[in-house]
Amino acid sequence: MQEIHIVDIRKLTEIIKTKYGYDFTNYAISSFKRRILRILELHKFNSVDALTKKISDDPVFFEEFISEITVNVTEMFRDPPFWRILRDKIIPNILLNHKKVSVWHAGCSSGEEVYSMAILLKEMGILEDSKIIATDIDDQILERARSGVYTVKNMELNEKNYVRFRGENELNKYFEVKNGLAYMDKSLVKDVSYRKHDLVNGIVFNKFDIVLCRNVMIYFNQNLQNDVLKKLHESIFKYGYLAIGSKESLIWCEIANKFIVVNNEEKIYKKIKE
Amino acid sequence: MKFPELHINFKAIVIGGSAGSFQGITKILSQVPKDFPLPIIMCLHRLKHVRNGFIEALSIKSIKDVIEPYDKESIKKGNVYLAPANYHMSIELGHYFSLSTEEMVNNSRPSIDITMETAAFTYKNKLIGILLSGANKDGAMGMKKIKDSGGFTIVQDPAECMIDTMPTAALNTTSIDYTLSIDDIIKLFFEIHKLYK
Asked: What is the pLDDT at residue A2?
């Protein structure tokens, strides 16, 4: 692995910021460096400078870059106990006060969590009454999320997770295998709104009962985590819920005192103060 | 056994292990004294979808608590850390951890290469890297990075390993300062402990 220098990365992020309005300055540096290296290898650039020049000259390539700089490794029902708690405790709790459940998947990637949520709500009999919005910074991945086509290999893992989630069916009730690919039942997500949105520079656009932002902020440094968390906080109704990844923590964020921990193992928080 | 290269400027120890390393690790942890001065950062291959149980199993015999760090958690002297299941664990320049769910590296998440390479970048020549028994090549590039940054490298004696692919790959990739049995690795920990007293 070649070494790349922070100075060159700074030049790259500056160009992107001025030219395209995306700000990668405060991404967590180790993983960002690895993403850049990956792109250098993939497109056979011999330096970060060469990549920077290409990005600066070629807006179409920049779209490609956005796709590759973001990490899109996800699963259906990742951490099955999390989904069980959502079904058995969190959503019933919301329904005590609200007729409908509104959900925001912030950083939805290829859409596996959106399908997990839709299946969960369907099995609870409330999918029709729910509102799901799924956003990501990357247009190409949103396209994949919309298409709901996954590899059979990934579906095997998803099925194992679903069994541990203790869903009421078999997961294969919700997809069909054709030509070696799994096609999800799209009626599950027919009312889902998939939108492009950048958590870093994007606006607060609505309020929700639950915001899922799991394993997204790990790609940001602590300053940026703080800023993004403020936006997430603004996007949640009072007494609504925030879910982050099992190894993420709010403790060191300025805004931590506006939440209480509902489930520490699964990192579910409740907003208690505006 | 004496280790003339040891000095009191080391800042951390990073340990990689896979198949067949569990016994060795628990033996080491059962001997490392409570007031051991350096952070011990472990990246061990483990079942990706079993979050619980592993740390408990390691803790049974360990004198010190074993911690699975949170994303951005600071690295503290003398703590024992373990890469969490299904996350890569990097060490950042500000001496804290960052986690990620990037693609598997060498078929592994956590990948030992990632932890070792980022540790080498952060600690430079003040790092000790130890690679134990295992069935793939993860860790070989990481050990090379540690050596190239001036750090101190040790592999478990392949003759003692249940599966020697991992230490052998490291021996073939870079120069390794010592090839040691688990008992001698424990002596090394004692030497470090003495030095810092």
From this structure: 63
Contact between B98 and A218 using a beta-carbon 8 Å cutoff: yes
Query: What is the pTM assigned to this prediction?
Result: 0.95
Task: Mutate one of B43, B46, B70 to test the A interface: name it (highest A CB count within 10 A).
Answer: B70
Enter the tokens of residue A109: 């990637």
CATH number assigned to the domain comprising residue B96: 3.40.50.180
CB contact under 8 A, B93 and A29: yes
User: How many domains does chain B contain in total?
Assistant: 1
List the domain boundaries for chain A: 6-69, 80-146+189-271
pLDDT at A237: 97
User: Which of chain B's residues have a Cβ under 8 Å away from the Cβ of A247?
Assistant: 68-71, 84, 87, 99
Which CATH superfamily groups domain A80-146+189-271? Answer: Vaccinia Virus protein VP39 (3.40.50.150)
| A107 contacts chain B (CB < 8 A) | no
ipTM entry: 0.93
Parent domain of B104: 12-134+147-157+166-195
